Structure to design on (131 residues):
């Protein structure tokens, strides 16, 4: 078990996508809640439930389309790791698939997408790519 909560969340979502599983249970922290809110707002997941009885876990309902259950999340990749942090200013934030995907950043204004960080002109630590 690693101490990287975000990598554990990404791996759980990626494994659920491979198995076409609808619901994923992940540890609930402020960072995972913020990332789940971004994934919901950007349309990559259907919804998430912050369970009141067991406040230590979040339940994510993944979004699939069609009879073959094609996932809306095709690629989810961790950028910055505990051993190698990757930072970027607002001018150097990478664009994913020409703006079709998103980069999730941890900034001084909280966890946000690449578009929001460019609008606010703040940089930060690049957490993950989603497309």
């Amino acid at each position: 078990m690693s101490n990287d909560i975000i990598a554990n969340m990404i791996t759980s979502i990626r494994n659920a996508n491979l198995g076409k599983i609808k619901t994923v249970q992940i540890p609930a922290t402020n960072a995972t809640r913020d990332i789940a809110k971004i994934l919901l707002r950007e349309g990559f997941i259907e919804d998430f439930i912050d369970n009141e009885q067991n406040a230590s876990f979040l339940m994510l309902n993944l979004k699939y389309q069609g009879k073959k259950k094609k996932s809306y999340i095709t690629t989810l990749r961790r950028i910055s790791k505990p051993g190698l942090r990757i930072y970027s200013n607002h001018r150097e934030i990478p664009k994913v698939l020409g703006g079709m995907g998103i980069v999730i950043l941890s900034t001084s204004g909280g966890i946000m997408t690449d578009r929001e960080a460019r609008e606010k002109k703040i940089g930060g630590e690049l957490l993950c790519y989603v497309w």
